[in-house]
């Protein structure tokens, strides 16, 4: 099933003709120019007293309620409105619930059930090749895998240890053996070697899309011909500006990506009725946006995502470098992301730009606050994310109505946010 691909017209992100080596095809991913590098300052300094800043708050670890409090706070009745609920599980991990549609039955599977999608999960204490190596957690996981209310599909953005964790994969396979796994090119064989049935692994390239539904046996099945009356999902693999590798020898051997998930329904009795979108979610994976925070050359993929999908009800966008170089803040030093190359990890300000580019209505900032060296890193990320949102006219995620530029913010680990799909 996981054989080499071939293409007469090699995609620009392929490094060879067989689809077994990959690269970032944009100038925004190249090393800084000499002038840009010369413009960078010494990146280390002492941390100021960030915890006193009005936008700073400690990230708490809370027991997930899977959206109950968010629904109540916003006065949303998920039995009367079509909703999408996102829960941050720490780092880039997120669980998304597509609640049952009010007026449309499921095309395949049991009617009236939610669909649960899990993104980049990691529940281990360390993000590394063994249980004793790699960055360790600064914040505990808010729950166990067995606590999840469901898991119909798992989406992996790339194979770095903090996004594809062996112990987590094995545990999901044990608790949710019927889940379908979606991965970028080259990652299917690794998953199959963990014991996952190859029939439950969907390997995809950038801009590739699959239409289907989750059948009673849990397998994501493509729909025969045009969509019939009912509900179906469109799964799209989207570009990201990053890299891959689990050792020093396999860099770029597998693809990296983001994911766009759309739910459609056709409820009209007329055969000619067109599918109507009833919810769209975007997970950016791990990504950069420009060579340095001072560069004007940006990654064009996100504006293209915004054009192709015309916006998302809920997005998960990284706002920090994750656990990279966390030991520096552990020693009490501040590593300025404004003075190091940033092609692979977007800054909080860049995350706001991605929010705007992809036309997100509601964005949850992720990829921070978990595998870090000190709370200062969380404060740093939140302060800049809030300030950039304010400057862009983006209102707070919690406590504000959706403005013309959408909402954005951060949650506690285990916190949830609910949105009514398609509501401006």
TrEMBL record:
Annotated Pfam families: Lactamase_B_2
GO cellular component terms attached to this protein's record: cytoplasm
Domain of life of the organism encoding this protein: Eukaryota
Region (Disordered): 1-28
Residue ranges, compositional bias (Basic and acidic residues): 1-12
PANTHER family per the UniProt record, alphabetical: N-ACYL-PHOSPHATIDYLETHANOLAMINE-HYDROLYZING PHOSPHOLIPASE D
Record-given protein name: Metallo-beta-lactamase domain-containing protein
Source species of the chain: Venturia inaequalis (Apple scab fungus)
